[in-house]
């Protein structure tokens, strides 16, 4: 199982979903699904944008459990 740590990373930085959407241009429903861990896939471009925005590595955003 893959866990998405987007909610943890946003909480640590005191950011909201709307901040991510506004600053990255990623669709709100995509960010929302990642935040609530209800997505079944992620596009590489989306993953790259999130990692650049949060200044983190892929391993910090996604982890295998």
Automatic annotation (TrEMBL):
Q: Which InterPro entries match?
A: Cro/C1-type_HTH, Lambda_DNA-bd_dom_sf
On the tree of life, the source organism's domain of life is Bacteria
A Pfam family? HTH_26
Q: Where is the HTH cro/C1-type domain?
A: 6-61
Annotated signal sequence is: none
Q: What is this protein called?
A: HTH cro/C1-type domain-containing protein
Look up and give the organism this protein is from.
Aliiglaciecola litoralis
What does the record give as the organism's lineage?
Bacteria, Pseudomonadati, Pseudomonadota, Gammaproteobacteria, Alteromonadales
């Amino acid at each position: 199982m893959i866990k998405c740590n987007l909610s943890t990373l946003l909480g640590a930085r005191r950011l909201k979903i709307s901040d991510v959407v506004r600053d990255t241009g990623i669709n709100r429903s995509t960010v929302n699904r990642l935040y609530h861990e209800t997505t079944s896939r992620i596009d590489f471009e989306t993953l790259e944008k999130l990692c650049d925005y949060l200044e983190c590595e892929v391993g910090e955003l996604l982890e295998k459990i």
